[in-house]
User: Which sequence fits this backbone?
């Protein structure tokens, strides 16, 4: 599981659902939360939270200027690739922080991914969870 620290910047709520923008270093993450500031104490602007998403939900693109609907587009550098027969694990650096991506080894080969290469990590808004920063 990938876990980053962030600060809530903006909350847009409607009918019990909130679209939350969270700043983590220089990146802005978007998350859909089935709560509102009225129903959850941690959903407050300027509040510290954990940004959580699975390694298998991190899509990799070599196109650094993607024009797609995925809101979470994070510029990363590949630090390490552990190639397996079926799956490959990529360690990605976002400045000082690191996240993991697990993709098929076929995709890794088709994209010709290499260590120290810049890539875009893409995470759908509904795959990003938030938790109170304990």
Assistant:
């Amino acid at each position: 599981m990938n876990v980053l620290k962030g600060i809530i910047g903006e909350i847009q709520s409607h009918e019990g659902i909130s679209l939350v923008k969270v700043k983590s270093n220089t990146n802005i993450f978007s998350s859909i939360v089935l709560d509102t500031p009225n129903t959850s104490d941690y959903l407050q602007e300027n509040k510290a939270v954990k940004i959580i998403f699975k390694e298998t939900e991190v899509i990799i693109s070599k196109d650094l200027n993607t024009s797609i609907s995925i809101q979470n587009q994070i510029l990363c550098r590949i630090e390490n690739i552990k190639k397996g027969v079926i799956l490959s694990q990529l360690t990605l650096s976002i400045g000082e922080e690191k996240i993991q991506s697990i993709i098929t080894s076929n995709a890794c080969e088709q994209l010709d991914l290499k260590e120290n290469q810049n890539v875009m990590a893409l995470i759908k808004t509904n795959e990003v969870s938030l938790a109170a920063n304990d």
The two ends are 17 Å apart (CA to CA).
